[in-house]
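Data deposition worksheet. Section B asks for the primary sequence of the deposited chain exactly as it was used as input, without tags or linkers unless they were present during the calculation. Section C holds the resulting structure in token form. Section D is free text for depositor observations; keep each observation to a single sentence. Incomplete worksheets are returned to the depositor.
Section A, Depositor: J.P.
Section B:
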Amino acid sequence: MFSSPPSDQNLGTEPRPSSSGKTGGEVVVRVEGVSFTYARQNGASAATEWILEDVSLEVFADDFLGIIGPNGGGKTTLLKIILGLLEPQKGWVRVFGRPPREVRHQIGYVPQHARIDATVTATVLDIVLAGRIARSRWGFRYGKRDHEAARAALEMTGIAPLAHRRIGTLSGGQRQRVLIARALASDPKLLLLDEPTAGIDPYVEQNLTDLLHQLNERLPIVVVSHDIGFVSTHLKRVACLNRRLTVHRVSEITQATMSDFYREHVHMVHHVASCPLGDPGCQHGCQLSTESVMREGHGD
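Section C:
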């Protein structure tokens, strides 16, 4: 039996209790006892196969949380539930003390494998302005406040000089910054990113990592990533999700923890300062150690 959601007026303002797996600040997201499965085709009545089962999670106001796990483990599904795009069959979710659908405009989201058609004539500013649609009074007609918010997002992501460039002329890393700027243009209070560094150059990944650290000074961030080295080196907490979820401080992540979670061998690698952590070949003089975790050959 799952508990009922608390009063909407109370959730999201309470200070967090002390716990080794927690950071600080008020609770901005609470997931309680959530179980979810996708509808079966053709009315099949076989036993329920949960994508998520009894998942509970708190995200705090200063959080920089990574979610890792195998393919099909439920990571993207969990983000969509927090966004209010999916409804769990069991349990409940509150974001800023409200049902997710009511506050979706306060959540910035960069989806997995987001694509920008390089053949369109849109400029960088056009793409970022699209993040204002939910807040614009006139739909696709943007006012002064919309343009100010879009330009502020361009400044935050370091691409203001590219505002009038055609999107098709940008590099992969620059386009990823455009997607993040589009999410920031809505003035979010929470940022969710699904595989933000997938498919980009390792050196560009480091620049994006620096950007995320800067943004984390302003708002809580949740990042889904298959790169354990990135998560265990840069983030504050790690949520391990494979249908069920456990949360750890980064310092608690060990080779034994990851091998048990993935049920396969993982390598422990000490990354030198010059190493771009997204490089699975690790050709930068890095040595096996117990300080960082890298799992090879697995995307999401």
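Section D:
The longest helix spans residues 202-216.
Helices lie at 75-83, 124-129, 144-156, 172-184, 202-216, 228-234, 255-262.
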